[in-house]
From TrEMBL:
Pfam assignment, any one: Glyco_hydro_3
Similarity remark: Belongs to the glycosyl hydrolase 3 family.
Domain Fibronectin type III-like as annotated: residue spans: 723-792
The protein's name: beta-glucosidase
GO molecular function: beta-glucosidase activity
Pathway(s) where this gene product acts: Glycan metabolism; cellulose degradation
Source superkingdom: Eukaryota
Top EC class, one word: hydrolase
Species this chain originates from: Malassezia caprae
A GO BP annotation: cellulose catabolic process
InterPro entries membership: Cellulose_deg_GH3, Fn3-like, GH, Glyco_hydro_3_C, Glyco_hydro_3_C_sf, Glyco_hydro_3_N, Glyco_hydro_3_N_sf, Ig-like_fold
Annotated signal peptide: 1-17
Length: 802
């Protein structure tokens, strides 16, 4: 059976556990005389012990023919045996930046009839390519909390890559929002491991079912832009597995073809040559069968990276991104094999993994060659300008709308009903005066409708519907008198326009991006630039003042925030004249349409915050390391498991708006929670491990269903709408876990007056903690509790579980 069918079938079941088939042959029952072995809480990395290092793990495991990968790997092995050493080196080495139409290129290998590969950014859609969709970024689809929308976005992205002849989508990005100011947070799926994991899983299935290879990145713990090439992320093994590795595991369970080691170090070992994380975690423990590909220019050695488990170097040269053909691999890899430094079998395994990925998504069956040229999109000879946008405006609009979290709605100000006079205030409400895509990769002045952050993760907008356009359409229909003021700093005019209106919508922003680009926060007034990471988590262009000026004069001030992440709101959120707040993330091209749909009630808001909005910056558990004189700055993850809402819970800090929060125009009532053990191994499943360490890989029973959670939700208001019930787990008290962790979620449609039954299944893995002494996932002795709520702090139902 082909992977494609299996992927769809498995995903349709919606059961995480069913992904891995039971295979107990290698795990004879060895009853444990002491099933409730104590779990020793992990020793968090405190940053005051010896300089951490990464233990060696060699040799690099070969890929396997397990499961879905059987046929692709067998075929790849056959090819590899027919390939010369030079061919092998060509297959694993990028052709050099600019030598090919895509951001990364692998040359053709005629001896095996292999046409080469085109790798393209990602993750928001096709980077730097015309007639393609600027999709809502990762943080926005995360805000929908909808598995279906995550999947459909992946499908649409996949179709666009395939239509342009790009083999590899360089996404999804799953680096958690550890520090709220970190520049690339917006490319990923927010601050929770499970939310990220599910979004990664759905995205990979969506993209790969369209026969495009996905690349999950940036492996591992690549958490900030300052010191992006020199910083070492230091973290303990339990934090590593339970928090940062989890989304990569979920991507692997979806069959992801490649994994991208990032620019950073972990425990002072470059990620492109960290054998503990590449050979051991990825290829042994998680049994990853595809290939690893370096981030652009992240490779720093030839022999060491080969032995540590790197399988492809991009863009091929020793640095990113000049057309420098000097390579650590290529002819050097051939030589390293010839002189005995790298075993031939290692290079054969690199090639096997790359070809297996190609066959896994059936790119040998009539896949297009690239019909665009990322290096020069105006070159008539190499650009066919193929339109791949289809009707993807529909899914983009749905996601951008569904993601909007209604954070405040005093006295049911919203939805608007044919207002007499409306004012739109702030540059984000209208178009950027100098034009669309004026700054390459969005690196420039922060004015005009914000559709996404900056860097390699940005895409070009083919069109951009601003609030100004969308709300004008309504004004025409409703006979509303409309006016606007788009200069963020002209408070006199803002006040004048606001005074005249009975509704004033103020549009404010906060931006960030990738560290190769630096963007000033506002006009020449403030020249301090943001080096990828935000300098602070306040609004840009003095948005706080603009809101206050307007609210001082208009008693129905609605604030619309387009932002890459959390923003402090204390200066204005409780202002009595600020009647409503829409948290609209980064909308891509469907900016104004999404906001208008929610403002006017054509769409009942259902978006939820994929991170916590704190009352003050120091309430967050982790920060970007901005300053260091060290050649290799140490970024110590001393907060351990306590990122984002887990920390606010554990330290009992009141946030402004909690993770998972968002209002609706209707009301929902929760009831009838039922929690049932359904697993084969009852309550004490540790005995499955026996007395010894697990053999290679995680045992398949770990992912089998253990607990079924069912409850009902009723729409008791007077409008149809979606609700987003969230299932949290409370571990036993001395488990070392945070007070509650997210384990399941989804968005459900409930017409008014109707009741919906919701079912979720948790696996043994979901109930386990990583025990460092045992080197195993184990249950924690004591009582577990299932919590079901409308947000992480609005728990409606509880049920304990032994
Ligand atoms: C991080 O931990 C290392 C090793 O324990 C220590 O030397 C260093 O000072 C710590 N760095 C910071 C910024 O706390
Ligand atoms: C990183 O260092 C910490 C602290 O020494 C250690 O617990 C952990 O196992 C190391 N992890 C890796 C991947 O090297
Ligand atoms: C990988 O497979 C080759 C060929 O079968 C074998 O020679 C080599 O030892 C294997 N490597 C590992 C690490 O098992
Ligand atoms: C090519 O890379 C080498 C090694 O990093 C470097 O020494 C050289 O200056 C580079 N050449 C160009 C033209 O960038
Ligand atoms: C091999 O690597 C060395 C640096 O380690 C570099 O100077 C040389 O140009 C490389 N050779 C090729 C063919 O890229
Ligand atoms: C083998 O070749 C590689 C690549 O040129 C080189 O880096 C390495 O030092 C050589 N090793 C020996 C033992 O000659
Ligand atoms: C909301 O309604 C109450 C009473 O119904 C009123 O006192 C209050 O001023 C209203 N607030 C706003 C923001 O309109
Ligand atoms: C607001 O409008 C009123 C009545 O039209 C006027 O008296 C007042 O001066 C205006 N305020 C501002 C700040 O424009
Ligand atoms: C719109 O606002 C401008 C600037 O304050 C003002 O001059 C103009 O009269 C307003 N237009 C209408 C139709 O009220
Ligand atoms: C916010 O960042 C800007 C630079 O982008 C800086 O000028 C300003 O002082 C910062 N504000 C705060 C409150 O830190
Ligand atoms: C709210 O708006 C009204 C105008 O409608 C204004 O008179 C009042 O001072 C404002 N309230 C505050 C707290 O600024
Ligand atoms: C808001 O201001 C308008 C006009 O200035 C007034 O008619 C209305 O009563 C005010 N609403 C509240 C809640 O103060």
């Amino acid at each position: 059976m082909r992977c494609i069918t299996v992927c769809v079938a498995v995903a349709a079941l919606g059961v995480r556990a069913s992904l891995v088939r039971r295979d107990d042959a290698h795990h004879p029952e060895t009853p444990d005389t002491a099933p409730n072995l104590p779990i020793i809480p992990s020793v968090p990395f405190l940053g005051n012990d010896a300089m951490p290092s990464s233990p060696p793990s060699y040799p690099s495991p070969n890929t396997t023919t397990n499961g879905w990968w059987e046929h692709p790997v067998k075929r790849a092995r056959k090819d590899v045996h027919a390939m010369s050493l030079d061919d092998l080196a060509t297959l694993v080495t990028g052709s050099g930046y600019g030598n090919g139409p895509c951001v990364g290129n692998i040359r053709p290998i005629p001896s095996i009839d292999f046409p080469g590969l085109c790798l393209q950014d990602g993750p928001t859609g096709l980077r730097g390519v015309d007639y393609a969709t600027a999709f809502p970024p990762g943080i926005t689809v995360a805000g929908t909390f909808s598995k279906e929308l995550m999947r459909r976005r992946g499908t649409a992205i996949g179709r666009e890559f395939r239509g342009k002849g790009a083999n590899v989508y360089l996404g999804p990005m799953v680096n958690l929002m550890r520090a709220p100011a970190a520049g690339r947070n917006w490319e990923g799926f927010g601050a929770d491991p499970y939310l990220n994991g599910e979004a990664a899983f759905q995205t990979v299935l969506g993209v790969q079912n369209e026969r495009v290879q996905a690349t999950v990145k940036h492996y591992l713990a690549n958490q900030q832009e300052h010191f992006r090439n020199t910083g070492s992320s230091n973290l303990d093994e339990r934090t590593e597995r339970e928090v940062y590795l989890h989304p990569f595991m979920r991507a692997i369970q979806a069959g992801v073809v490649s994994v991208m080691p990032g620019y950073n170090f972990v425990n002072n070992s470059w990620m492109t040559q960290n054998s503990a994380l590449l050979n051991d975690r990825l290829k042994r423990e998680l049994k990853f069968q595809g290939y690893t590909v370096s981030d652009w220019g992240a490779q720093h050695s030839g022999v060491a990276s080969a032995l540590a488990g790197l399988d492809m170097t991009m863009p091929g040269g020793t640095s990113c991104c000049d057309t420098n053909l000097t390579s650590f691999w290529g002819a050097n890899l051939t030589q390293a094999v010839t002189n005995g430094s790298v075993p031939l079998s290692r290079v054969q395994d690199m090639a096997t993994r790359i070809l297996a990925g190609y066959y896994f998504v059936r790119q040998d069956e009539g896949y297009l060659k690239p019909n665009f040229n990322f290096m020069d999109i105006d070159d008539p000879a190499t650009n066919e300008h193929v339109d791949v946008m289809a009707d993807h405006d529909v899914i983009s609009r749905e996601i951008s709308t569904a993601a909007i979290a209604l954070l405040k709605n005093a006295n049911a100000t919203l939805p608007l009903h044919k207002p007499k006079k409306i004012a739109l205030i702030g540059s984000d409400a209208g178009p950027f005066a100098l034009g669309l895509n004026y700054y390459p990769d969005n690196i420039g002045w922060p004015y005009g409708a914000l559709s996404m952050g900056w860097g390699s993760g940005a895409t070009m907008n083919s069109y951009l519907v601003t609030a100004y356009e969308a709300i004008q359409q309504r004004a025409r229909r409703d006979h509303t008198a409309i006016n606007w003021s788009f200069d963020d700093f002209d408070y006199v005019n803002a006040r004048k326009v606001a005074n005249y209106s009975d509704v004033a919508a103020v549009f404010v922003t906060s931006l960030s991006g990738e560290g190769y680009g630096t963007v000033p926060n506002s006009k020449p007034v403030d020249k301090a630039a943001n080096m990828g990471d935000r300098n602070n988590i306040t609004l840009w262009n003095g948005g706080e003042k603009l809101i206050q000026e307007v609210a001082a004069i208009n008693n129905n001030t609605i604030v619309v925030v387009h932002a890459v992440g959390p923003v402090l709101m204390e200066e204005w959120i409780e202002h009595p004249n600020v009647t409503a707040v829409l948290w609209a993330h980064l909308p891509g091209s469907e900016s104004g349409t999404a906001v208008a749909d929610v403002l006017y009630g054509d769409y009942n808001p259902s978006g939820r915050l994929p991170y916590t909005i704190a009352k003050q910056r120091r309430d967050y558990p982790a920060e970007v390391l901005y300053n260091s004189d060290a050649p290799q700055p140490q970024i110590n993850f001393t907060e351990g498991l306590l990122i984002d809402h887990r920390h606010f819970d554990a330290k009992d800090i009141e946030p402004r708006f909690e993770f998972g929060f968002g209002l609706s125009y209707t009301r929902f009532n929760y009831s009838a929670l039922d929690v049932e053990f359904i697993g084969d191994y009852g309550h004490n499943w540790n005995h499955k491990w026996g007395h010894h360490k697990a053999p290679d890989g995680l045992p398949s029973w770990l992912f089998e269903p253990a607990v079924r959670v069912s409850f009902t939700v009723r729409n008791t208001g007077d409008m149809d709408g979606h609700e987003v019930p969230q299932v949290y787990l409370r571990f036993p008290n001395d488990s070392g876990e945070p007070p509650k962790v997210l384990r399941e979620f989804d968005r459900v449609w409930i017409p008014r007056g109707d009741t919906v039954h919701v079912h979720h299944t948790l696996s043994y893995y979901d109930l386990s903690v990583w025990s460092i002494p045992h080197q195993q996932w184990r249950r924690s002795p004591g009582t577990y509790e299932i919590l079901v709520g409308a947000s992480s702090r609005d728990i409606r139902l509880r049920h304990s579980l032994l």
